Amino acid sequence: MVQNTGPISSDLLAAALKATVEGVVIWEVKEERCLIIFVNTAFETLTGYRSEEVIGKECFFLNHDAEHQAQNEVIAKAVSNRESCQITMLSYKKSGESFWNELSLSPILSKNGELTHYIGVQKDVTDRVKNEQTIQQKQQTLQNKKDELEELASRDALTGLHNRRYFEEELSRLWAVHQRLEATMAVVFIDIDSFKLYNDHYGHLEGDRALKAVADTIAESFSRKADLVARFGGEEFVVVATLENGVECFLQHLERLRLSILDLKIENKHSAVHPYISISTGVCYGIPPQGASSSLFTRDADVAMYQAKRTGRNRIEVVSYEADEATAMKPAS
């Protein structure tokens, strides 16, 4: 059975506050201002401020700069709503040294329900916060390494373009988006003409340089964030693009790309097509038909590219899926 020992004396409460290892602050709330009326010994030890230096000051004086605005607003909101709150903030000692301060605030209400005081308990949690920051930094470093490895795994080592695996995964996502929005997209297959002859006569080292130069030109031509450029395999490249400016504008863009490859002036004496390296291009565009998979456009763009090769190379062949004839394949006019 618990005995009723009566009220605790003020001297005993003062001794208890003096003995506690956590900083204790009592603010008096007057006319929307919170002024310090008491701090204990642990507060003085924690902050370096003597009691007489802080009595009568506003409650925010330990965290007065702009970077603490959010925390100060949390405190102000709690005071306004007469609520408790707990925050961790970077505070400053009298010496200017910073420390991480875990502050718990509790309101004291009068018998009439009016807010009269706030009691704050402060704890130096610098070691804990630094440990948490170290763990977060290590986790971020690991995540960055993971992202780098994933990025490397999605890239072609020679050209730096995305590889075929990444292209196929991303195409499925882009296909679904364009299908849902009923937006026009294009898949473009690009193949370097007579590249086997180039490798046979100039060697694979020169062949790699030519591949890199062509890849860089294609990537520069399709540099929008929405564009996807990948090396499909060998001397074949693939592009996925949104036709925001219409079909004719897009085909003109591809024609400029074809000419820019010729402008590289990479000599290919043994080509029956052109004295310089050239490309054959196949395009399939349209609104992705409902119920169809992305392989529809890749298949037809590939077919169009081989048609470009059969009809002379160094040219563009186009297949379209018109919105009102989604199942019909026909050359674009």
- Content of β-strand: 15-25%
Order the strands across the largest sheet as they lie in space.
Answer: 7-8-6-9-10-11
Please give the alpha-carbon distance between the first and last residues.
Answer: 98 Å
Number of helices: 10
- How would you classify the helix and strand content by structural class? alpha+beta
Topology as H/E string? HEEHHHEEEHHEHHEEHEHEE
Q: What's the helical proportion of residues?
A: 40-55%
Major beta-sheet overview: 6 strands, mixed
DSSP strand count? 11
Runs with pLDDT <50, length 5+? 324-333
Q: Return Rg in Å.
A: 36 Å
- What best-fitting shape do the alpha-carbon axes yield? elongated
Give the overall pLDDT as a whole number: 87
Which structural traits does this protein have?
333 residues, disordered C terminus, 11 strands, six-stranded mixed beta sheet, 25% strand, elongated
Description:
By secondary structure, the protein is of the alpha+beta class. It is 42% helix and 25% strand. The chain contains ten helices and eleven strands. A six-stranded mixed sheet has the order 7-8-6-9-10-11, sandwiched between helices. It has a five-stranded antiparallel sheet with strand order 2-1-5-4-3, sandwiched between helices. A hairpin with a 2-residue loop joins strand 7 and strand 8. It is elongated, with a radius of gyration of 36 Å. The C terminus is likely disordered.
Kindly summarize this structure in a few lines:
The chain is an alpha+beta fold. It has helices spanning 10-19, 41-47, 51-54, 69-81, 126-153, 164-181, 195-202, 204-221, 247-263, 295-310, and strands at residues 23-30, 33-39, 85-92, 98-109, 115-124, 185-192, 228-233, 236-242, 279-286, 316-321, 330-331.
